[in-house]
Amino acid sequence: QLQLVESGGGLVQPGGSLRLSCAAAGSTLDHYTILWFRQAPGKEREGVSCITITGGSTNYADSVRGRFTVSRDSAKNTVDLQMNSLKPEDTAVYYCAATHHPICRYSVINYWGKGTLVTVSS
């Protein structure tokens, strides 16, 4: 059973940066396509970014493309989400998720983390 744990959330001012990490217990993340979702207060959960099993393909929501970067650190067994130029509308609980699917499909999820809160405010 794969267990996912997010870290790195917190309070940041608009224009600032945060780096989220998704760590795993029970297996190596290299065996999974890893996705990041977020859910803002009063809104539905949305897919933010994805990186495939091999790391050869990444995907971003239009709202974060050019500001967020997803990457794997196989040595640490983590998948990181570097978030730059943060905006107040990026405020949300961010979740990492894993799927056995070899491509990015936000509707096919096998495992979820419990989330980490990101607040962008002055």
Describe the SSE topology:
Elements: E1 3-7, E2 10-12, E3 18-25, E4 33-39, E5 46-51, E6 58-60, E7 68-73, E8 78-83, E9 92-99, E10 111-112, E11 116-120
Parallel strand pairs: 2-11
Antiparallel strand pairs: 1-3, 3-8, 4-5, 4-9, 5-6, 7-8, 9-10, 9-11
Number of strands: 11
Strand content: over 45%
The outline comes out as globular
Low-pLDDT stretches are none
Q: How would you state the average pLDDT, rounded? A: 95
The H/E string reads EEEEEEEEEEE
Major sheet summary line: 7 strands, mixed
Relative helix content: under 10%
Rg measurement, Å? 13 Å
Indicate the structural class: mainly beta
Number of contiguous helices: 0
**C-alpha termini separation:** 40 Å
Brief overview, please?
With 122 residues, this protein is an all-beta fold. The chain has strands at residues 3-7, 10-12, 18-25, 33-39, 46-51, 58-60, 68-73, 78-83, 92-99, 111-112, 116-120.
How does this structure look, described?
The protein has 122 residues and is an all-beta fold. It contains no helices and eleven strands. The strands form two sheets. Strands 2, 4, 5, 6, 9, 10 and 11 form a seven-stranded mixed beta sheet that branches. Strand 5 and strand 6 form a beta hairpin. It is globular and about 40 Å long.
